[in-house]
Each structure stands twice: as structure tokens, then as C-alpha cells.
Amino acid sequence: MSTVVETDVLIVGSGPAGASAALALSTYGVPNIVVTRYASLADTPRAHITNQRTMEVLRDLGVEQEVVAQATPQHLMGNTTFCTSLAGEELGRVRSWGNDPLVQAEHELASPTRMCDMPQHLMEPVLVNAAVARGTRLRFQNEYLSHTQDADGVTATVRDRLRGDTYEIRAKYLIGADGGRSRVAADAGLPMGGQMGVAGSINIVFEADLTQYTAHRPATLYWVLAPGATVGGIGAGLVRCVRPWTEWLIVWGYDVTAGAPDLTTEYAESVVRKLVGDDDIPVTVKSSSAWTVNEMYAESYANGRVFCAGDAVHRHPPSNGLGSNTSIQDAYNLAWKLKLVLDGTAHPRLLDSYTAERAPIGRQIVTRANRSIRETAPVFEALDGLAPQTPEQLWANIAARKDATAAAEKQRAELREAIAFKAYEFNAHGVDLNQRYPAESSAAIVPDGTPDPGFPRDPELHHQPSSRPGARLPHAWITSGSRMLSTLDTVGRGRFTLLTGIGGEDWVRAAGAQEVEIATVVIGPGREYEDPYGDWARLSEISDGGALLVRPDGFVAFRHASAAPDAGELLADALRTILGHA
Ligand code: FDA
């Protein structure tokens, strides 16, 4: 065995976390290699909900339009339906994923992007193709086995599964994006909290033309309350649209203490029949697999030169559709920091901010996703369906809601309320967009002395913009000549950006005098960018002569409310702190 390859960053895994880390690093010009165990990318749909924050990341990385072209659009995602089977009785719907008119307005105001449904087997090729086109070296059928690290780098032992031999890759940094059974995270000794294997679940991928049961109430998710639906799983039986309205994925639970059932085609077909409810429709089962619901997160995402991202450090059920979104966002947070450390601009201690910023988000989404499962119980409770009972009893309870009795009216109200409460799973816009990195925990954020505005509205349901350091730059439509663009379009591309207005000339000069590249954006009448709607003036929370310094990942790192004659000094101080030189 000899060292055959050297690189700056070795990435283990080509899922959403690894592929987007590779894409970002290659976009920033950082040499990287991806090793991935299998001969192909994901061959089943898995993750699909792609939220606005992820679309913003993809927009910055130049692949947003490719994703939009392949994804199911937002307006076909929204009628999350609760029913006894697709062909059976409908119990209610909740307008989801930004399709409620009020929530839709919040989506439009929050971001230049739109949420969409992009199945993982389509997303991974987009990310990986772009990464490889920009320089990533990708090795399929190469399996990470172990690593050692020293003061200068990491040496990973890798097995080439095609040739059958092992070799070493020497890298300055290692990213473990190797999923929920991460060997890298285990080898790095990352401390994990929570529990694996909380419940058992089965995915069944199948083809069937279900247009007659779905096209009139287009949705990504159809939830089925059938006998047995509360055993294991993710709260109820689920028929998920992969491609409207012919490709599907069912999620069905099993008792984890009894072990997964034998996943024969007959068994899979029987579950499909139960949830579809129409035996005359031709069904082709493509695959089935068992997995477990997990409730686990890492307390630290790094050990020395080894960093983990994605499911390697947060393991949770698909509720709220947060898995690949958070994985992509982890990678985006890490990539620019690695770039600046590798090119000598930043001190390696900038990398400490990765755990400080992302671990609290990981814990939050693991908790949210598991809570969402538990919040499905009231839907069953409204039908008295949690108590052990025969199928006949469940059907009778469901039928009873149609009676003209006070009890039935109460049942109808409870059912409506329980279904509407699922907004915390299907319309949690705040969970998607309210991520903030407090200066108290992250050294890559410079406090500006203002009090934390918190979240006056429900932080899980409603996005609430802020330009306070640690918040994502608020989106506002501005113009440049005849072109309309988002404030978010002025930042990113691997560099810092300073936004100011009329009177902010000292800030512009100061930005040009720094060693690190800082793009400058001046917004105001007669300047390169204008604010014709006044949205930016309302959202920026600074005076015209003030400044926001935005990190390459779109988060505000430093804010000064007004013009400052000593802008040069203030900015240099801020950068020293952010880049770990203070
Ligand atoms: P992921 O598991 O995708 O990738 C790991 C990679 O590492 C793979 O390429 C693997 O081959 C490789 N690997 C592993 N060990 C290796 C080794 N030793 N050497 C080399 N390579 C190795 N999420 C979401 O955001 N929205 C959603 O709607 C859903 N829905 C959903 C539905 C269902 C049914 C499931 C099961 C899951 C979801 N998810 C989801 C979750 C989502 O699939 C998951 O969070 C992401 O795939 C995580 O991405 P990662 O890149 O971290 O790991």
C-alpha cells in the first residue's frame, strides 16, 4: 500500500452533503476528491423537499435553474391530504409548502427562490456533474476505511472495490459526508446525543398511474390512516409523489422490536394495495427497503482536521423535509471557511465556527422532525384510532364523524384542528429560514451591541428577517439598470460583500483597502443599485451611510448602523475577528 493521491480536501460520500461540499469547493477553486462506496449515485428518490434556503445556496452555486427544470414545482406540492386510502375517504387537507395564500406571500417576500420537490436521485447528479465539471475528482466504488491525522493533514485508507486493493489519500482536511452510519464520525470520535432505531420504517418505490386520485388535489404527500398505520413508521402511512402522478414512494412502519418484515414483492404489493385502495390499478414495485427512524445529533462536528456534515451528524426522520436541506447547508457553511484557511487568508480557528454555528441547527432539526411524528397522533386520537382496535372499529369511528350528533361535531372539530396543526410539519417556513448564528457562540460573527430582536412571531412557522450580525442577509428586490435582482444575488460566490448606501463612501474605500477580497454594493438613487420599492430601506436596519459585511455564505458578519470616518479601522478589526486573527 502506498500513497497514490494527494489533495486539499478529501470528501467521503456523494450524497447531498458530500456532493454540495465538492461543488462549493470546486466553485471556489479548492482541489478536492470525492470517494464514494457504490458504483452509482442514489438510485432511489429519498430526500425531495427542497426549501428556499437550499435553493438560495444552489442559486449561488449556479445550479438553481437546472434543479428548477427537473423538480416538481411548488404549486403541485401543496394539498397534503389525510385519507383512508387514495381511493378511500378523505378526512381533510392542509395547504402546505407555501401554498396557503398567506404563507405564499411570506415565501415570496422572503427569498428570490421557490421551494420545489427535487427527488434525491435527480438532485445528486446535478450537484455531482457540476462539481466534476469544475474540478472535483470523483472515485466511485471507493470505500473509506479509516484515517489518521497529524499536524499537517489527514491520511485516509481507502479500498478500491473494483480492483480490490487499498491505498492512501493524503489530504489537508477530511469531510465525512458518509451518511447516517458514518464511519468517519465514529473514527473521529464525535460525541453523539440521542438514540438510533426509535421506530421501524419501510420504503416502497412503485409505478402506478394514480392521476384519478391525485391530480385534482395535487400534493407531494398523501397520508393514510389505515389499520396498522400507527405501528412504527413516521406517524401514519404515507404515499409520496415522486413524479406526478405515476411514480411513488410509500413509507410504512413496522414494529422495530420485532424486526423488519420479509420485503418480498408480494408483501410490498399488499402495502401498496392497502394505501392506494384500488386493486384494479396496475402497480409495478421497483424496490423496497427497511430503515429506522433516528433521533440523534452530534455535539461537535469536528475533530482536528476532520469535519462531518449531513446525516453523519444529524439523524432524524424525513418529517419537515429537512435532511438533505440541512446537509447541503452544512456543506455550504464549511466550504468557504476551508477555502479561506487553505489559501492562508484565515486562521484555522475560523473552522471552530463550523460546529458553533451548525451543531445547534442540527439539534433543532432532529428535535423538530421527531416532534412532527408525534404531532400526527392527535389526528388518530380525533378518530379514537390510537387505542388498539379492529379495522372494523376504526372504519366505524371514521364513519361516525358524519353523524348529526354533538359527539360527531366535536369529533369533526378535533380532526380539523389536528390536521391544521400539522402546519408545523408542512408549512414551517421559520424552521427553513430563521437560522441565526449568535455572536455569543460563533467567533465568525461580530456583535454590534444591539439587543437580540428574537422572533416576535412563531419562530417555527414564520420567517422573520433581520440584518443583525448572525442573521442571513434579508432578501429585497433591487435594480441595476433595467435588471431586477435580489440583495442575495449581490453576495456569495466565495467572497465577502459590503453593502452600503449614499454616504457610505468611507466603507467602500475601507473594503478596497483590505487584504481579503470584498465586493462592494452601493444602493441608492443614481448608484449602481437602486431600491425603487423601498424594500431595502425597510429591511436593512441601517442608515444609508451604514454598512453590512456579509460572509460568502450570505450571513451578516458585521453591521455598523451609520457612516463612520474610521471605517477602515472598524472593518479591519471586524475582519481580524471573523477570520480568526484576533
Ligand atoms: P447520504 O446518506 O445521502 O449519503 C452518504 C454517502 O456516503 C453516500 O454516497 C454513500 O454511498 C457514501 N458512503 C457511506 N459510507 C461510505 C464509506 N465508508 N466510504 C465511501 N462512501 C461512503 N431529506 C430532506 O431534506 N427532505 C426530504 O423530503 C427527505 N425525505 C426523505 C424521505 C425518506 C423516505 C428518507 C429515507 C429520507 C429522507 N430525507 C429527506 C433524508 C435524506 O435522504 C438524508 O437526510 C440525506 O440523504 C442526507 O445526505 P447525506 O449526504 O448526509 O448522506
TrEMBL record:
Domain FAD-binding: 6-369
Statement: the UniProt record of this protein carries the keyword Oxidoreductase: yes
Top-level taxonomic group: Bacteria
GO molecular function: 2,4-dichlorophenol 6-monooxygenase activity
Main EC class the enzyme belongs to: oxidoreductase
UniProtKB keywords: FAD, Flavoprotein, Oxidoreductase
EC number(s) recorded for this UniProt protein: 1.14.13.20
InterPro entries: FAD-bd (IPR002938), FAD/NAD-bd_sf (IPR036188), RIFMO-like (IPR050641)
Stretches for region Disordered: 443-474
UniProt cross-references to Pfam families, sorted A to Z: FAD_binding_3, Rng_hyd_C
Keyword presence, Protein biosynthesis: no
PANTHER family, A to Z: FAD-BINDING DOMAIN-CONTAINING PROTEIN-RELATED, TRK SYSTEM POTASSIUM UPTAKE PROTEIN
Protein name: 2,4-dichlorophenol 6-monooxygenase
